[in-house]
Every structure is written in C-alpha cells, then in structure tokens.
Amino acid sequence: MNDTRAMIRQCPRCGRGNRVPPAHLADRGRCGACKGDLPPLAQPVEADEAQFQAIVSAARVPVLVDFWAPWCGPCRQAAPEVERAAQGLAGRALVLKVNTEEQPQLAARYAVRSIPNFAVFKDGRLLRQQPGLMGHRQLEQLVLQAA
Hints:
Layout: E1 7-10, E2 17-20, E3 29-30, E4 37-38, E5 45-46, H1 49-58, E6 63-68, H2 73-88, E7 94-99, H3 104-109, E8 117-122, E9 125-131, H4 136-146
C-alpha cells in the first residue's frame, strides 16, 4: 500500500488488483476487471504512519490497532488471534498492525509502554486501549464494546 489514499486489494476470483479507498476497506465491492465479489477486508494491514493516519481518519467502522514488535514473544502469540479477529470482524471493523520498532512515533503518540497493546479507534479518535495478550474473542469484544 504505497498510496495513502487507496489500498490495492486482489480479487479472489481473477487475481487482479483493485484500488480501494480507506473509507471503503470494510465494504463489499465489485472487481473492476471481472465484476466478481470483492469482500470486505478480512486480514490485518501492516501500517506505517501515513497508512495508519489515512485508514484511522477515513474508516467508517471501528479500527483495532495491534501495537507489536518482532522480538516480543507475547506479540508473536497474539498474531494468529489478531488474524482471527480480523476475519471475525470483517465488514464491521478493520484491523491494523503497527510495528513499534519501525513506527516508534506512533507508539509514543499513544503512550504504548508495553506490548502487545491493542487500541480501538472510531472517527479518528482513540476510544479504548488495552495492553496484554488477548484471544480473538476478547479482541472482537474490545472493538464491539468500544464502538
């Protein structure tokens, strides 16, 4: 995702890339090439600062952010749970992953002192933040209760 205004999503039917604006990542769409169904985003997005800002500010659904680092054992344990939460929340929320080693300014902005650290945003605002390892059901509840 080089362009902060749109993300390239692959069509599951024909494999062609489709430009999807951040505001529509949680929407069901149609492939521009084959007109097949383009489902809502159902996997976490690795986000840098520009992507984070573009998605969090434009999303029409809540955004769950996983602040993590590659050296963190609990973060590695949380990764499959975050993926499952992204699948379970498809169409109702978006999930971002922010590597705190590569994006320390984002971690500092949101006072991330321990990882994994999960934050829920809606309409560009931080609604809730929770450090510690969580299962996918807990993550889904965190999003649904905050929103």
